[in-house]
Fold each of these.
Amino acid sequence: MTEEIYTGLDVGSHAVRVAVGKLVPTSDGKEQMHIIGAVEVPSSGVNKGTITNLEDAVSSVSRALEQAERITGVPINSAWVGISGGHIISQESRGVIGVGRSDGEIREEDVERAIEAARTVATPTNYEIIHVIPKSFIVDGQRGVKDPVGMNGIRLEVDALIIQGLGSQIKNLTKAVYRTGMNIEDLVFSILATAEAVVSDRQKELGVCVVNIGASTTSLVVYEEGDVLHTSVLPIGSDHITSDIAIGLRTSIDVAEQVKLRYATCTPEEVNKKDEINLAELGAPEDEIVGRKFIADITQARAQEIFEHVDKELKKVERSGMLPAGVILTGAGAKLSGMSEAAKATLRLPVSLGNAIGITSVIDRANDPGLSTAIGLVLWGYNIRGTKGNGNFGKIFKSFGGNMGKVTSGLKKLFKSIKP
């Protein structure tokens, strides 16, 4: 019997990342996700989380999947695919139904009907629903009910968060994946998958914000009392730091990227004023000496701007400086030196770097914050499909993960047999 494999595919602006996991038994008789492969290849044809050149995007995804198959030695036929980008929006909705049973007992089908009622919200033109996330239920006026199944009542209400994306961007992403010959298990809003990898249930209960700093976008999700309180995708990321360095030093983007990776920090006060860098050693055409403190000042200014935008989002839900579990930074941009200190200073909250939890792996890269979304997609797939997964999680998202079946069914028939 073939072992069941879970694959997460994260198509980003800077890189395409793939994580592959399988279940392994633990010493106490349970099962745990073991990451057997994790790859990252440069991305092309993707900008700010959206497909801008279909052929280039297909090639990037194909290379990542081929590398993953070589590393793991197992065929990869389907994946849970992350979707992000500035086009994704969220809005509140409420579904109300009557419980028609004579004994008044609420059953699972009643919960499903209530969530379906919440789904009938007016969506903007050309937008598709990706997720309907139940936050809490109200039974005959009693608020704060987490799971109403088995309770008695005649009126059931659900407060839900609707995550929506632009239909054309959803179709472009699914088309890029299908043209590699892969099947899509489902599309998942990337930041929600990231949170599955780096946040514990305890932190979700207390109140926590996960911030994923990508190349050209920064995504965030706020949890409180175990529920998603707010999500957002900001059109600013670590590539903007590279651009600022290129402008400040009057050098090329490639040299600026090397400066950022090797010497940049968000804490200029820790840099010696006499420290200098010769840009010629990083690929510049001629000798040019620049002060490292000047680079740190540029980096700090842009990092501060990113977290000021994050703080604006927290203010929208009245949680600025008021999340007991603080902020968890993840994504490749979070690895920049001093990023956690810059976040603490701007957000006035405890900050930690997010590494994947609840998994095992012999691969060093499994601890890379840049791979947290791909690993989160693996865990998301297990939570829904796995027999030992979180039943409540699967019940909510398996039925109401979005209209992806309708959106992609035609594309699947067209592209499932096409190889690039």
Note: Residues 201-356 form a domain with the Nucleotidyltransferase; domain 5 fold (CATH 3.30.420.40).
Amino acid sequence: MPVHPIPPVYDENSRILILGSFPSVKSREMMFFYGHPQNRFWRVVSAIYAEPFPETVPERRAFLLRNHIAAWDVIASCDITGSSDSSIRNVTVNDLSPILKTAEIRAIFVNGKTAEKMYKKYTGPLIGRQAFVLPSTSPANAAWSIEKLIGAWSVIREYTEG
């Protein structure tokens, strides 16, 4: 059973929390979120904040913190086949309380339907907070073009400014 190897990214200035479901094989190898080259997360958020695409893990971590974004995943460990969200079984969830106690999180966003389902089932009832669902940046969500994703994800900006 894979255990989530990536620590959360946040600091006291984080204003939103973006949660995925569980890191892909590529992300686990890279030891950072959205590591698969076809995942559009970094292209989307760098466009929203009008910043250069962050290539390296240190650049990506700095990007998140500079823009007041905390990032983690709903699931701490699970049975999963490769990177297939549909194969996820035997879930244990991450404890979000360290992030919520440290930062003034104005909104929680989930990246895609699997993250939404897991959040609603496990995390939401524990912390009593609603999460906003954003369309998945995964390459499996081929129905959403990069332009449509940027449009939908632009909502995060209003929570991170000011």
Note: The mean pLDDT is 94.
Amino acid sequence: MATPAERKALLFFGIVIALGTGVRAAHIHTAARGSPDASARAALEVQLAAADSARHAKLSKKKGRKPPIHQKLPSARVDLDVAGEPEIEALRGIGPSLARRIVADRDSFGAFGSLEGLKRVRGIGSGLVAKLDSTVTFSLLPRPMNTVVSPTRLRPKKHVRDTLR
């Protein structure tokens, strides 16, 4: 014969099992019965059609085809020290990935200041700098790259215990 404590534990486990079974049955019942309403299904169909058309358009494009030249030329000189990715990408010879690298380099290391400063970006060489010479400008001063660190900063600090000896 079970003790009163064991009977309480068995009753507790029986209730937990019954509740779990009831929740599972309710979940299965609502999942089988509840299909999405008409407006949700229509919205899903629109999204699927848009995704399919975009995928189809991407596959049907001819590789290596460039956009017309009138879409790539900027209307005025572009200041590379403050311009965003779309303005930089509009320059001749610069694509989206190079524009991202230019902005990332500028954000990390400061303004370019000149065409020589622009050469520090990976993927920009003398040829591209020559192309960009008449279409870009620089308004900010470059961050000094050769700053001298004082010798006292290079020496490790003495610990208090070292000075007491």
Note: The beta strands are 78-79, 136-137.
Amino acid sequence: MTEMSRSLSRQLGLMIDRRGRVSHVIVGDAHQLFIPDLGRHRAGSGRFRGLRLVHTHLRGEGLSRDDLTDLSLLKLDAVIVIQAQVNGMPGFVEVGTIRPGAARGDSEPWNTERRPSIKAWDEDYIAFIEDLESAIGRTSTVKRVPGVEAAIVIAVATGRVDEADASLDELERLADTAGLQVLDRILQRRRRPDHKFVIGKGKLQEVLIRAMQLEVEVLIFDGELSPSQLRNLATDTELKVVDRTQLILDIFSQRAKTREGKLQVELAQLRYRKPRLALMPTAMSRLSGGIGGRGPGETKLEINKRRAGERQTRLEKELKTLSKQRALRRNRRRRVGLPQVAIVGYTNAGKSTMLNRMTHSTVDAEDKLFATLDPTSRRLRFPESREVILTDTVGFIRHLPKDLVHAFKSTLEEVQEADLLVHLIDASSPLIQTHIDAVDKTLAELGADTTPTLRVLNKIDAVDNAHWPEIKAAHNGILVSAQTGDGLDALMLQIERHLFRERASGSLDS
């Protein structure tokens, strides 16, 4: 083998199973081998593929990074390099195997050993590999949830690392809400994201190895991937690749219950996917043409794009109709003279719980992101037979997809038309100011930043009461707990004073 490799000036490789049978003969160039598709073979949870790669090197080098990456990604029993000397005789041999405990992410996930000659290897190779496989099975510490896809969340820090880390925490919660099991998180610090893969090529290889070790099916990137980045990552990793926008859209799709909510989510998904259809793999070949058709006919991609455009037009028309109906209901309430109060805030700030507590309702309220999508309105009664309409709205979040904001326009009109906004803030969160800024930014985009607003600091039951004065002074809000009811009397008083005094002042002025 080494003599032939030297005469051809090419690397030669053999894939050998545990019975000693050769399954593949591979001819590379002077620098590397290109391993063909090996199929699934016997690779599974805690098991190797049952194949070892034995190949030659020509330049006196040992195992390369590519060799070790192939070892991990393909779950090979071993990768063995034999040096082909100038005279064609075999030189030193180097063996790489996966290291037990590598799934915990400690240092390098492989072991390497060099010996002066292939003849110096006198151990029972099969017994060694089977013992190694058993050891790896015993040291596996990851407990998979049956029937749930596993994921790794990934972010690039171009600024402050603590902010990127907090954003990654939120991405984990989003993944959990979407029904995924997050097994690992990776944060890379870079001056700017890589234009092709977001993270660096070397880091991407590490991610792939980690995904193999944990048997992960999904990679989730914090931030929105461009169509080309999405295609590059999916092609290179052969894993499901999802960005933050796609994850949020998926959560909205799961949570939408009313017809309007479902239409809004579908419209947002169409807007997100439409520009990405153009960069799908070229395997989407010609579908129509032939008898009765002129020219080469349409490709399947063109048909998909056209159908997506037609569906988008229909959805926009239906949502316009529903928006008019919603506007009629709002006008009807205005003619009755009922003021409108909208509860806004960051997702999972406790808006639905607050609505339930104030109006004695039973709206679904869960400790999950985006538990409520469809706005719910209830009457809130004050003394002296005064009433207002209190509306729970969809939660905001950092980097809320623009397609969602546009699609939920008719729903968010409840915020634009409100007489008063109750900005609910999670006082127990370490990112209070970040959440406030995200909500304020979204309100400005909706043109509701001039609407009178009451800041309400919720979840004080989860905060040490010694810190209450400090939090209240820092964020200028009313302290309440929607869970226990503490502080709600003060909030009701502020709402009543604001609405009805403002109305009384307006009547006197007119």
Note: Residues 2-139 form one domain.
